[in-house]
Structures are given as structure tokens and as C-alpha cells.
Prior knowledge:
single chain, binds 2-amino-2-deoxy-6-O-phosphono-alpha-D-glucopyranose, three-stranded antiparallel sheet, seven-stranded parallel sheet, globular, Rossmann fold, about 15% strand, alpha/beta
Amino acid sequence: MKVFLCPNREKLAALTAALLAAQIRTKPESVLGLATGRTMEAVYARLVLAHTTQQLDFSRCTTFNLDEYAGLAPTDPRSYHTYMHQHLFQHVNLTAEQTHLPNGMAEDLSAEGVRYDALIQQAGGIDLQLLGLGENGHIGFNEPLASLSSRSRPVVLAPETRQQNAGLFDGNPDSVPPRALTMGTGTILESRRIILTVSGTSKARILQAVLEGPVTAQKSASALHFHNNCLVLADQEAASCL
Ligand code: GLP
């Protein structure tokens, strides 16, 4: 695992976007793993800019998102489908056929997880997976004590995750869906390259625990130590406890 520190949030977003853009330029048919959350908003804004001003071409890419809330329709304004549409998909040359998120409305959520992993395999596996870090150390929605070899599946969200993500739900953690579908930690680790982008003082302690502490199912991000091509990008605030 390599760690690179950026002076501020803007440079962090710029570097993350530049690495993703370089991946697309080097391999136009890249399979990209995408993440949601506030940290990624500035990353997607820069990719949109690169598309409009530097002809960054997504036309041969395929994308797979990490997760989606259970029970939210793709058209729900609080869904990750909507987030991705608003922040990236509608602004670049990606069609609906090229982009994938787990279907939170699937009747059988376990079968949906199996289907999602199979789709990733059929696409040839993920070339570059973007990740954010949850304040409890999760990647995707792989909450504390989930198996580090888990596959894509339905999960119960931890109370702190519902608290952290309450912003889109009128600030009320009880309104955040209790369950979600997530790519498994094992699935994530199969990506050929991984970039974990971490920003802000609220992530400083957990980033320190993930980077300097033991590999533990208590923090699924710690499993990234097992990956042979994982880059951690952090701004000064997030790196303040290292
Ligand atoms: C959610 C997502 C994670 C993401 C995390 C970080 O929990 N499921 O995949 O990494 O948010 O979010 P933020 O960037 O808003 O701190």
C-alpha cells in the first residue's frame, strides 16, 4: 500500500480525477469501480470538466458502483443512482448500458448480489476501483465485523453509518434505509488497482487506525493492506494523526 499526501481538499480531488483520467486515456475500454459520498463530488466535477474541456472520452468505459440503499428506487432523489446521474453520468458520454449500480429494489437482494458479482466478472473485472472511507473504517458498505472475503450482498447498516449519511435524508438517521446492497470486500480486493481517497479531520483517527493498526474485520478498509496495487490519497486534515 502506498500513501500520498495532498496539501488540501482541492489538490486531493484533482489528483484522484487525474489518475482516473489517465487510466481512461491509457485504456479507453477500462472497467471503472465508482464510489459515492461527499469526497467524490469534487472528483466527479473535475472529470466532467476534463470531459468538456479536454475531450476525456468515456464512450468505451464500463462502470460499476460500490453500493446502493435497499428499498430506494433508482429515481429516488436520495438514491446513489440519482447521485451518480447528477454528479457524473448525465454530464459525460456514458450510456445507461455502460453504467451499473446494484438494484436496491430487487425482490431477492442476495440474488442481486450474486448477479452483480457475475456482471463484474463478465466485464473482465475492475481495472481501477475508487474508494472513500467511512468514519467507522468501512469501504463500500462493508460494516464492522463483515468478512474480509465477502462477496456482493445485502447488509445491515451500522448506526454510525446511518448518522454519517443522514444529510440526504433531512438530517434524520432514522430516515436512512436500514439496509443496503454493497460490493463485498473480497470483490473489491479483486480489482486490479485501487485508489482510496480520504479527506477531512473527521477521517483522521480512522485513517490512522487503518494505515497503522492491524488488519481486522472491525475495519474493512484495513484489508487493503492485502492488495498489491493500492494507493491511499489523503489531504493534510485526514493525515493529521499519521
Ligand atoms: C458512504 C458510502 C461509502 C463512502 C462513504 C464516504 O458510506 N457507502 O462508499 O466511502 O460514504 O463518504 P464521504 O465521502 O461522504 O465521507
